[in-house]
Amino acid sequence: MNFLKRTIPLIIAFVMGVLMAMQYYVPHKLSQDLLEVVSKWDRIIAGFAVFIGAYSLLHLHWTRIKRKVEGWGYSVFVYFGAIITLLFGFLNGGKFFWNDKQDGTMFDWLYYYVQVPAGATIFSILAFFIASAAYRTFRARTNESTVLLLAAIVVMLGRVPIGNYISPYVPAIADWIMAVPNLAAKRGILLGVSLGAIATSLKIIFGIERSYLGGGD
Amino acid sequence: MERFLRIDRRIIFASITVAVIVSLVLQFELPIPASEPVQEIYEEIESLPKGSRVMIAFDYDPASKEELQPMAVAFLHHCFSRDLKVIGMTHYPGAPGLAEQAMTSVANQYQKKYGEDYVFLGYKPGSASLIINMGENLYSAFPKDFYGNDTTTLPALQDVDSLREINFLFDLAAGTTIETWIAFGKEKYKFDMGAGCTAVMGPDMYPFLQSKQLTGLLGGLKGAAEYEALIKKKANAVSGMRPQSVVHVIIIIFVIFGNIVYFTTRRTRHA
Amino acid sequence: MRKDSNFFVLVGTIGLFVCINIFLMASGKLPFSFDGFGVILGAGLTLAIYSFLYKDNPAFKIAENLYVGVSLGYTIIITWFNFLKPDLYDPLIVPMFSKAATKAPQYALIFPSLLGVFMFLRFSRKLSWLSRWTFAFVVGLGAGVSIPRVISAFILEQIKPSLHPVFSGGETLFSSVNTLLIMLGVISVLIYFIFSVEHKGAIGKISKIGIWFLMISFGASFGYTVMGRLSLLIGRIQFLLRDWLGVLQ
After folding, report:
1. Is the CB of A28 inside 8 Å of chain B's CB atoms?
2. Vertex A178: Cα angle to A173 and A183 (nearest 5)
3. Cβ C215–A109 below 8 Å, yes or no?
4. Residue A80 within any structural domain of the chain
5. CA C217, B230, C241: angle at the middle one, nearest 5?
6. Cβ of C235 and B67 within 8 Å?
7. Which residue of A76, B111, B234, C87 has the fewest CB atoms within a 10 Å radius of its CB?
8. Which chain A residues are closer than 8 Å to C129 by Cβ?
9. Dihedral (C-alpha) A25, A31, A36, A37: value to the nearest 10 degrees?
10. Which chains are adjacent to chain B, needing at least 3 Cβ pairs under 8 Å?
11. Could you report the predicted ipTM of this complex, rounded to two decimals?
């Protein structure tokens, strides 16, 4: 049983990893066909993962309702929103879900007038918190934080039209900050992260990194 | 002085809100010269001959709509005004509605026909695998478009077998899709690529600009405003520059004032 | 007493919102149609979410949870129409059960579908080990596919411009200095992130330079983050003033 639960997954990871790494260097048509088929299969598996996320979310809110934890009533709205959207989605403007998606249905209405405004607004709240945090906590306590603060101020002024009114040097300095020191730091981070990603990929392929298998036996 | 450090944050929230509302309502012009990364995308589209195929990846959802939708609309205006064939797709399940809205509304202004002048392939999961699948065989990745039409029958996709035949790819990204497109798409299938991204991600894209892996970049609402000014279709992004400028100055004043108060009270305490 | 006053504030605000909308519809600024009611719903949700800035309240929580539910429903339906139907249902299930089908079923799709179903067995106590096969397939494939592409796109293509000649003809002194600065920045930042060596002596000095580059970069990122978040707020206020209240053109 340990062979099926532990060894086979490690063999699968090794075979797929080596196969796809070597595939990159083989220009033969069979190799290209393999890449096409395997990438299609990976896409299909990724699609099923969407439903795992959906199940997890619904299960979480169902547990809250069942145990009547504090604020459980709000979880009812999650189910309400999901059920009504699914209903209109499957109804598909009267054509039902086994036909092609229809335009201008109640499903689209819910998207444009519930999901879009609510989704856009939730993330826009951060603007207020950034302004508040900038006033309350952004302090030039050390030389490094002073440099950070000055760079932020120059970039903030240089990236809006008003910076040009103050001085034409402001946008020029902002552009230089982005194109030289910022570029250098981001490139250093990118190189470091990429090297780390390659090391992790190799560890996964050779079975040294096994956290993706999950716990248990 | 110290009480200024403990000011109720709702006063800060209210002042930001008032600043945005007032600067939106008051109409005043601000010059918006195009920066080099934005100019590069504009010139790339200007250089494409009529009938060239441009793929737009609408890789964002409603959370980033306010920055990226104006970019999408401005870019679509430019493509349709130059009679380029536009192919839309997305990696995000929350994007199809926004992508469809942008493509349809702009295409109608230029009397473009669906299927002949533009196509919307829709959403597919898979990220890197999807890009590789599209790079090997577009019809294997998208056997049907968003509306259920067989993609092999669409005139706009004629002579397009894979990403290799795309003349330019424009990724509107709210996440890590730009790096994914570069590593799994451009690297092997050699298409020209530009990107539009949220301002939060803007600084991270500069290494790709310098290495020419990205032809150009529209960063945030400012990037969208610059592009609108270049194509002479000033809309939401340009009008958004007024409150953007005002609130930036307000936040800088907050930061400087906060530091002055902090250091003044610290000196008083030590004295 | 405090709960009562909160209740009255909430009811009063909702009442004001209803009155404003009645006025907008009566004056013709909002059409009396599905779209008009949609704009009212959108504005209501926007204001309910912004009410969190004053105080956490039921209106915010209802709006937030409703959004979560609707997005979940939308994701499932879009996944059905854009993925399950064209990639599995139409090529595999329909030809198997429909006599009118013109193409043969693509039986090869059974294998990835099975792997996809195995993923759900993660929630079963007895058969959860089958989900490991799927995860191993996906993770192994991802690792193998990434290695050569990441090396090419993120390492080689990024090192190339960093090693650009300082003087190769045509550069100004300024651009040559910038090229040197970029190389210095990249090396010093990479050295800063080597934590397995103590940052003393020459390594310490170079990593200190790396810290300065990082601080400037983080300052630039902060500036852009402020810009980005403000843009989202500006967009929402534009919606409220233009689409809902009709104050902006």
Report:
1. no
2. 140
3. no
4. no
5. 80
6. yes
7. B111
8. 4-5, 217
9. -130
10. A, C
11. 0.91
C192 falls within a domain: yes
Q: Are B72 and B126 found together in one domain?
A: yes
Distance CA C95, CA C90 (A): 7
Domain count, chain C: 3
CA distance A3 to chain C (A): 11
**Which residue in chain A has the smallest CA separation from B249?**
A157
Q: Does C98 touch chain B (CB under 8 A)?
A: no
Q: Which residue has the higher pLDDT, C4 or C222?
A: C222
Q: What does C161-230 look like in DSSP terms, one character per residue?
A: HHT--S-SSS--HHHHHHHHHHHHHHHHHHHHT-TTS---HHHHHHHHHHHHHHHHHHHHHHHHHHHHHH
A204 within 8 A of A13, measured Cβ to Cβ: yes
The answer to whether the Cα torsion of A151, A154, A157, A159 is positive or negative is: negative
Distance from CA of C102 to the nearest CA of A (A): 17
Q: How far is A118 from chain C (nearest CA, A)?
A: 6
CA distance C158 to chain B (A): 6
Q: Are residues B224 and B137 in the same domain?
A: yes
Total domains, chain B: 2
CA distance linking residue A139 with residue A141, whole number of Å: 6
Q: Could you tell me which chains touch chain C, where touching means 3 or more CB pairs under 8 A?
A: A, B
For residue A205, is it within any domain?
Answer: yes
Select from C34, C155, C232 the Cβ nearest to the Cβ of A124. C232
What whole-number distance in Å separates Cα of residue C41 and Cα of residue C239? 12
Contacts of C172 in chain A (CB under 8 A): none
**pLDDT tens, chain A, 217 aa long:** 778 888 999 999 999 999 999 999 999 999 999 999 999 999 999 999 989 999 999 999 999 999 999 989 999 999 999 999 999 999 999 998 888 889 899 999 999 999 999 999 999 999 999 999 888 888 888 999 999 999 999 999 998 888 888 888 999 999 999 999 999 999 999 999 999 999 999 999 999 988 888 765 4
Provide the 3-class DSSP secondary structure of residue C12. Answer: helix
Assess contact for B224 and A201: CB atoms under 8 A.
no
Rg (chain C; Cα; Å): 29
Which domain range does residue C157 map to? 106-162
- Considering only the beta carbons, identify the residue of B12, B65, B246 that sits closest to A120: B65
Nearest CA of chain A to the CA of C72: how many Å?
Answer: 6
Residue with tokens 């539910």: C69
Is residue C203 domain-shared with residue C124, that is, in the same domain?
Answer: no
How many B-C residue pairs are in contact by the CB < 8 A criterion? 143
Beta carbons of C150 and A194 less than 8 Å apart: yes
Residues C158 and C198 in one domain: no
Q: Is residue C158 packed enough to be buried (19+ CB in 10 Å), middle (13-18) or exposed (0-12)?
A: buried
Whether C54 maps to a domain, the answer reads yes
At a CB cut-off of 8 Å and minimum separation 6, what does B168 contact? B44, B45, B48, B52, B53, B54, B55, B191, B192, B193, B194, B215
What's the pLDDT tens digit per position in C102-135? 788 888 899 999 999 999 998 888 888 899 999 9
Range of the domain at B131: 36-234
**Domain final residue, candidates C95, C122, C140:** C95
Cβ within 8 Å of residue A192, ≥6 positions away = C189, C190, C193
Q: Is residue C167 part of a domain?
A: no
